[in-house]
Structure formats: C-alpha cells, structure tokens
Design a protein that fits this description.
By secondary structure, the chain is mainly alpha-helical. Helix content is 71%, strand content 6%.
C-alpha cells in the first residue's frame, strides 16, 4: 500500500471510528449508569424491580436495532453509506442528550420512564444503522487481503466507547460531591455527548463516498429494492441466516457477557463499590482492546472462522470457573471480620422510617457498608457496598481481561467476515440485519435475562445461585459454535469485494 493510500485509509478509519465510538458511548452511558438511573426514573419502593426495569429499558434499545438495520440499511444501499451514517449519528446524539434532560420519577411520575423508553428506542434505531455503514465503508476502502486488519479498528469502537463512558462517569463522580452527583451530576455524561457528536459530524461531513458504492452508482448497478434482494432471494437469505446462527448470535452473547454482564454482576451480585467496578473494568478493557486489532490482522492470515469459533469455545468452557472465582474472591462470608472495628449508626426520619448503617472491616483490607432501611408497613430494604482490597481488585482485573480476550477473538474478525458474505449492492442491508439480531436481540437481552436467572436462583436458595445467569450465554454460544463449525465453509465462501 502506498503512502498516499495509507494516509487515505487512516483518514477513513479515523472518521468512521470516531463517529462509531461516540455512538457506542452514547448507547452505553445508559447501561453504565443503570444502577443510578433505576433510582431516578422508576418507583423507589422496590429497588430490585426498579433495577430490572432499567435493564429491560436498556434491552429495549437492543431489540429495535434490527429495525434500524433494515431502515437505514435500505437507505445506505440506495443513497449511499456516508449520508446514512451521518443521519444515525445525529439521531443517536440528540436522543442521548435528551435522556439527560428528563425530569425524575418524583417530578413527573410515570411519564419519566415512558420518555426514557422512547428515547432509548430511538437510540437503538440509530445504532442499528450505524455499525453496518461504518464497517462497510471501511471495508470498501481497504486493500485486498487486509480487510480483517482495517475493519478491526471499527471493532474496537464499542469497547472504547464503553471505556470512555466509564471514565467520564468516574471523573464526574470524583469531581462532584456524592450528593451533587446523585442530584444532577449523573446527567453530565449525557450532556457531554452533544459536543462529541457535533465534532464528529463536522469530520464526517467532509468525507467522500465509498469508492466501491460510488462506482456501482455510476454504473447503475445499485439495488432498487435492497430488502427484497436481501431477504426475498433464497440464495442470499441462506447466507443471512448462516451469518446470524453460525456467527453473530454467539458473538453477541460473548461480547455482552465479557463486558456488560461482568460489570452488572460485580455491582449487583457481588455488591462491589460502583466506582471500583468502573475502574477495574476500565483497566481490563484498556489492556484487552489491542487484541481486536491482533485477531483482525490474524484473520487475514489464517481465516476468520476458526478464530471466532475458538473464542466461543473458550467462553463456553471457562465462564463458570471464571465467575465462580470472581464471586468467591470477594465474598465477605469467607473473610475474617475485625469485630472491634465494626460500627453502627441509626438515622430516624420524620416520616417514621429509619436507616441503620453498619460498617465492617476485614483482616485482608476489605470493608463493607450495609444500609438497612426500615419503613412502616414495608419490608426492610438492604443495600451493601463492598470496597475490595488491591489484591482482590487485580484478581478481578485479570479475570475480566480473560473474558475481554474471548470478546476480541469473536468480535475482531467479524466485520470483515460479514462484509465478505454479501455483494456491494445489498451489503449494507444484508450484513446489518444478522449483526443486529445477533447482538441486539441475543446479546442485548443478556444482562436482563441473566440477572433475572440469578435473582430467581437466589430467592430459591441455591448455594451457587450466582452462576445461573451464565446458562443463557453458554447455551446460545454452544448452538452457534455447532452451526458455525458445520455449515460455515470459508473455502467456498464468495468474496464480493
């Protein structure tokens, strides 16, 4: 590749990646703040139900992603890649900013969760159109034999977006007092996105259309009905279904287990301090992100299939041992309490309720604060926040990092894999749908489904209740692994670029 072409492809990568990263940041701010948002937009009398409702609203954004893929994919195959994902960027940015402006449940009642749900659905539609456009745009600029490497830069954007969302939240929390953050500071990460979107829009505005699409448009070979040609054609539909059930379905659950479920698990099941979780997850993501590029590059050398399938198999085999180790490492039941340092305070309010705060310290440096709220005629509500010692923190960083490695194996090569399955004129539509069904439906529903399984198992009194949430990703990834190994034939797969 010449210097000129190298400079050109880096310009394409930078513009596409920045916009896609910002869209992921916008999308994941909601998930990163799920614990806080559950207290702002939903009734506070049942914290567990409020948190599950927040996860369900978070998942709703994933459920509509396939519809965004169809709508914007059709536009992308008719009018072009560039203008379509400029529109998705503005829709995502506007929706995120407005979520930060919605009054709390205490102020406007049930209108609050309704407005959040509407904006969350708009976010999902926008993201449904963004990824396929960015991946297609980059792949159509990339030199032959290097598509895995160059598209893997787009693959880093989801993780980088999540990382930046965690860092913005941490900085905001550390800048403001706890009371200020709880009152209004949690809105700041939502507001910041509008500035980032504006900068990205100006950059994307000056980009050229994909040369492959521009050539097809000039020759009059673009599709007049991408939906019909993508899904009405039995031959092409076969590849759409294979992409979904043999690749993206398993990739989706591995992605969301290794990053989002890991975060949710540590905060709500292990009860670790939220800021500690954000920091250790941020470190693991930072360490793991370069491996997206590595496995994308490696897929150009040895093929996409076996790297992705290996990532799924490793996840299937090691999820339960990893999560068992995570839970037992910080479980205070297995630690020695320093009784002499235990303190307890009681605060009574005018409405007859009271809060008992018990602070416990342990010999290994761990501490735990347990707040029990007693209200008249209501069951006592307990809230536990554990601050782990440095040794346990680095153990968790390592265990999450291993999960991120599984993510990079299944996710790094998949953009090139999907792009190569479909012809130019229906590529945006054809690849977007299986990607967003696999990630939006199978992957996006994972935090809510797995948290429900854990909650149900805990209520049933199972000793290893915390592992029940893993059955969902293990089963889905297993089915995908079998289908992918049997039916994906990389030797005979037609490359349409």
């Amino acid at each position: 590749m010449s210097k000129t072409s190298a400079k050109g492809i880096w310009k394409v990568i930078s513009a596409s990646s920045m916009g896609t990263m910002i869209e992921w940041y916008d999308f994941y701010i909601f998930g990163s703040l799920a614990v806080v948002l559950s207290t702002k937009f939903f009734p506070g009398d049942n914290p567990t139900a409020a948190f599950l409702s927040t996860l369900a609203t978070f998942a709703a954004g994933f459920v509509v992603r396939p519809f965004g893929a169809l709508f914007f994919g059709r536009l992308g195959d008719i009018i072009g890649r560039k203008y379509t994902f400029m529109a998705t960027l503005l829709l995502m940015g506007g929706s995120t900013f407005l979520i930060g402006c919605i009054p709390s449940y205490e102020t406007i009642g049930f209108l609050a969760p309704v407005l959040v749900l509407i904006l969350r659905l708009l976010q999902g539609l926008a993201l449904g159109g963004e990824y396929g456009g960015a991946a297609t745009y980059v792949a159509e600029h990339a030199p032959e034999g290097q598509k895995g490497y160059w598209t893997s830069w787009i693959q880093t954007t989801a993780t980088v977006g999540l990382f930046i969302s965690l860092m913005v939240i941490l900085v905001t929390k550390n800048t403001l007092s706890a009371a200020a953050f709880d009152s209004w500071g949690w809105r700041v990460p939502f507001w910041i996105s509008i500035v980032m979107v504006g900068v990205s829009y100006l950059i994307r505005k000056n980009m050229d259309e994909s040369p492959v699409f521009a050539k097809a448009k000039k020759e009059g070979t673009t599709s007049k009905n991408p939906l019909k040609e993508s899904f009405g054609n039995r031959y092409n539909l076969k590849f759409v279904l294979l992409a979904l059930f043999g690749a993206t379905m398993g990739q989706g659950v591995v992605w969301y287990t290794g990053q989002f479920y890991a975060m949710s698990f540590m905060k709500t099941v292990m009860n670790i301090n939220s800021s500690q979780v954000d920091s250790l997850l941020g470190i693991a993501l930072l360490l793991g992100t370069p491996f997206f590029i590595f496995f994308g590059w490696l897929s150009d050398k040895i093929g996409r299939k076996y790297i992705m399938m290996s990532g799924m198999l490793l996840a299937i085999l090691f999820y339960r041992p990893i999560y068992r180790t995570m839970y037992t490492t910080t479980d205070v039941e297995h630690k020695t309490e320093i009784i002499a340092k235990t303190t307890q305070t009681v605060e009574n309010s005018n409405n007859g309720s009271s809060v008992t705060t018990t602070t416990k310290n342990y010999t290994d440096g761990t501490s735990a604060v347990e707040k029990t709220t007693y209200a008249s005629k209501k069951e006592a509500q307990k809230n536990i926040s554990i601050t782990i010692n440095p040794s346990d923190k680095w153990t968790l960083v390592f265990l999450v990092f291993i999960q991120v490695l599984f993510v990079t194996m299944v996710y790094g090569p998949i953009a090139a894999f999907l792009v190569e399955m479909f012809p130019t004129k229906i590529r945006y539509t054809s690849m977007s749908l299986p990607y967003h069904v696999g990630n939006g439906i199978f992957g996006g529903l994972l935090p809510a489904i797995s948290t429900y399984f854990v909650t149900h198992a805990k209520e049933a009194g199972k000793p290893d209740f915390y592992l029940d949430g893993l059955w969902y990703p293990i089963i889905i990834a297993s089915v995908c692994f079998v289908i992918g190994m049997i039916y994906i034939d990389t030797k005979n797969q037609t490359t349409h670029l």
